[in-house]
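Journal club prep, notes for RB
We'll compare a predicted complex against what the paper describes. Inputs for the pyridoxal-5'-phosphate case:
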Amino acid sequence: MSLFDRAELAPADPILGLTEAFNADARPEKVNLGVGVYLGEDGKLPLMASVREAEERLVAQRKPKSYLGIDGMPAFREAVRGLIFGTEAQVLADARVATVQSLGGTGALKVGADLLHQLDPEATVLISDPSWENHRALFTRAGFKVEAYRYYDPEAKGIDFDGLLEDLRAAEPGTIVVLHACCHNPTGYDLSLEQWDQIVAVLDERGLVPFLDMAYQGFGFGIAEDGAVVAKFVASGQDFLLSTSYSKSFSLYGERIGSLSVVLGSADSAKRVLSQLKITIRTNYSNPPTLGAALVATVLTDPDLRASWETELGGMRSRIKELRQVLVDGLAARGIQDMGFIAGQLGMFSYSGLTKDQMVALRTEHAVYGLDSGRMCVAALNTGNLDRVAGAIASVRS
Ligand code: PLP
């Protein structure tokens, strides 16, 4: 009897499992709208020109590959703090923010979750209903009880804001509340700035612990617009955590680059929290990798590369909006008039409102792969596959 006989076969990850099924599908016309990846018009992952140029410069420098500090590359941390909080932000000048480089957005969430669990193992974590699949698993694995607050209203095709506020008001003080800063995954429905004001106030009043997850800055309305909620939390004076990811906005998925910031009431708290974050990192993977951080730092700090990156990101954002509209038009042309909401959703995803059976039919009959929840990645559409997807959706709807 081996110790490892105790290991049960875990179910396949729902999204990565779907990709495996997609890869095994022999139909040449297949379309993968399952994973959260932005693909270009050619159906391929783009290498952004700004990132390519930064990489060429780095290669030309031929620097040796030393270890980074536990909290990551200083130039990266400085650059992303400017991007997130604003270079002139008083909270940075006051040294009230503890920031570490992380292994993508997921790594930031996990390091943050581990810190929180160490400080309050009994706390409950609230995530949105629905949320990115990994939120529940990640916080559960970190040792928390995970529950959900109301978010999506399928009837209204929007946010159940009253339900959301009610659930937050009912939460025990100390409850950790995970919020999507922009481009909500999977629904594509974001809170308005006025609604955020109310959420920020309720979290503060109730003594809840906000954990903002910002994986898609720049994909909604713009870099500053999508990050506006961060300034609202800073202005409220409450402590909060913020994870960011540069997987999507720099198309650097495989480099695993992100950051975790904890905003606190004093420089002393920030110092203590940073020391604890460093222990978590040191005992898990010691220190983060170099390349992604160097690329992001180079692009953000060089004025030409920065301008080029902002233009490229803006191009991705507006192209997704166009794809949404073309899909809506294609559906309308096929007699499906009630899916116009897709055009107004934000970010890479669309909650299509299709049922599980319809999503299965899309897969089996039309080789169009989306999640059973009805989530589709509109950022994987292109002029070559849009017509087929619109036709397939119309067919499973009829
Ligand atoms: N948070 C949300 C809401 C996401 O959608 C994702 C990625 O899909 C992440 C975090 C994780 O980002 P990363 O791939 O950088 O780990």
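Talking point for the session: The longest strand covers residues 97-102.
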